[in-house]
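Re: export button greyed out
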Amino acid sequence: MSGRTIKPIRIESLLAGVLNVGTWLASVVIAAGLVLSLFYERTPFPTGAQVVTAGIGLFILLPILRVILMLTIFVKERDYKFAAAAAVVLLIIFAGFAIGILSK
Amino acid sequence: MNTGTELWLFAVSLGASALGGMLGMASGIFIVPVLTMFGHVDIRSAIGASIVSVIACSCSSAAPFLKGRLTNVRLAIVLETATTAGALSGVLLAGAIPASYLFFIFGMILLLSAQQMLAKRRDPALAPTQPFTGRSTTRRLDSSYLDRALGRNIAYRVERLPMGMILMYGAGLISALLGIGSGVLKVPAMDTALRLPIKVSSATSNFMICVTAAVSAGAYLVRGDIVAPIAGPVALGSVVGAILGAHFLMSFSNDRIRLLFVVVLVALAAQMFLAAFGTDLFRGTA
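Workaround output, generated via the alternate export path:
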């Protein structure tokens, strides 16, 4: 992430890396949670389902992280129109969370 | 939720996602019907589980497209302002729409997918003949990609952006309502409005799907509509299925299999319509 000439190729490989690692991480967490829930099916353990939910949360965070990354890169490149687009997308995602909380 | 159910959900999602991946479709379109009809999962939980798997598939398959520079990242972020706005509207509507309407809309989308599968896609973006003109911001979306089959760089331009944005808004709305990636609405937007090369539009639409789905998934998660014991196995199965499906993408593009899928889609649509008009029957078992 150093240097001021971040070319489009760098954006793309950076995003690819983040999405790849994130997918693996979230999948492993979900798998761990599922395995846990198989073994502790009947115990009131801080269990399976919670770990699985954490993994699901990671999957939902991944696209948000991706937009934040794009926003930072566009700002660094002084590409303000596209940075603004990224900011709007980010705000809409947060609005989604807000609606979810309010309509609970 | 017992071991059997968990494994069943995992296997079904793996199958749905692998089949979808082979045809270049998202898995969501199969997951919701299968979960509601055969798993007797109620449609809102099915949609919640499906939307997570949509994110998982989109994220897990994005990297090769990005590395191959097929994804137009700038165009994606511009169109995402429309898809996420649509998804937000979908979240607002979702609570107000009765389950039977959701089944009906889903049936319509399945029919639309069947129709699109029958009509072969022609590549809309031929090498541009006119010089690149137009407003500077729009022109900055134009790009090029290296076509490995043709062995050269293909330059393309983005056309009719406003119309593309409107269609993308609709795609986002349907995605949030039904828990699908709604590639079925993005394809016409990309082909007829923006006139992108097929490879670029597939890659870019796949890239956008996870962000679009994040709006509704986030809302449904905090609202408590995402049931972990269902969504977990489904998401995991979908990732594995998507990886498997991508490997078979090339070898399964023949006409007989397309036709088989059209039949499957129409059958699922019929089932969804039945559910829409006879919800009481289905609710009894849900």
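Residues 280-286 of chain B have pLDDT under 50 and may be disordered. The button fix ships in the next patch.
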